[in-house]
Specification:
Mean pLDDT: 87
Distance between the termini: 13 Å
Helix content: 25-40%
Largest sheet: 8 strands, mixed
Number of domains: 2
CATH class of the largest domain: Alpha Beta
CATH architecture of the largest domain: 3-Layer(aba) Sandwich
Strand content: 15-25%
Strand order of the largest sheet: 3-4-2-1-5-7-8-6
Shape: globular
Low-confidence stretches: 1-7, 219-227
Oligomer: single chain
Number of helices: 14
CATH topology of the largest domain: Carbamate kinase
Radius of gyration: 22 Å
Number of strands: 13
Amino acid sequence: MNTASESPVSPGFLPAEIRRLVIKIGSALLVDPVGEIREAWLRTVAADIAARCAAGQQVIVVSSGAIALGARRLGLPKGGRGSLDDAQAAAAVGQIALSQAWATLLGERDLAAAQILVTLDDLENRRRYLNASATLERLLGLGIVPVVNENDSVATAEIRFGDNDRLAARIGQAARADAVVLLSDVDGLYTANPQADPAAKLVERVDRIDSGIAAMADGGSASGMGSGGMLSKIEAARIATGAGAHLAIISGHEPSPLSHWETLGRGTIFHAAPGKRARKTWLAGRLTTRGAVVVDAGAASALQRGNSLLPAGVVEVRGAFARGDVIDIVHADGMTLARGLAEYDATDAMRIAGRRSEDIAGILGSVPRSVLVHRDHMVMLDA
């Protein structure tokens, strides 16, 4: 971690530095405690977006708020989150109000909005991910502001993002964005929970997300209205920076929060890692996998040197995956080292685990592939 102010990217993510920007807005900022849109505040956000578009920046908005808005209109308890059925119904009603608000307020600034609703599967499935990427590219090329939200009316508890922080990072990845900004109810990552520890200090810059950075995260949502907390923002930063995009956490409490950030520069910026190839970026950002293989120290070392995963280094196979499925590669100490596409299904992987490549023919009757995960279809994950 480095909290020095020297950086190739200045606070504010200005259009001269960042061509394409994703802005995420949480429910607690967009919806007031009684379930109505904070229209006056949102109008200042629309003005900020319009100013950036006029300066040449392309902007994507990831907007929460549908469930909170729908719950108010339907009179549902617990903000619409009392059950999956309530959340789905609230989202279906609230999404109309949410998209209308964005269309109206951006329209006042001569900007057209486009609504995009996605599920986790849309970005975990490679073909649908590429379709979403192409749609975003075309809309931005036409000067449209895409407004994205999770499709909570059809998402299930098992197959969903669960928070829009990670969705924003994945959308940034699909759109090949240069940066992601998370407007939050706090003004960045602190060394401890600032509500509980007055001595907590703001971390202004993070160059690498390690166990120390992760330990600073507090998993709770301060408002109780949204679903994300600092932990989800750290996970979003892993996805974004791994895809070559910077990510900032800044306060959204002030009117015109982007302009306010440009002036004060207060927040936390996670600096992007060197870019990866498109397929490897998609692999690194996935939130679901079909299984895992546990490897010994020798295999872990070989992976770090850029080698493929050989069956000889595998000590355990977990899950029921098919050839071509995404699996995690895990060290014996439990740390996930890498992610890649399996060259064998789980049954055959178990049969050849721990065996040398020259033994495969005798075990399986043929040697279709000499590696369990090829380095070209694998991405290393930061600790």
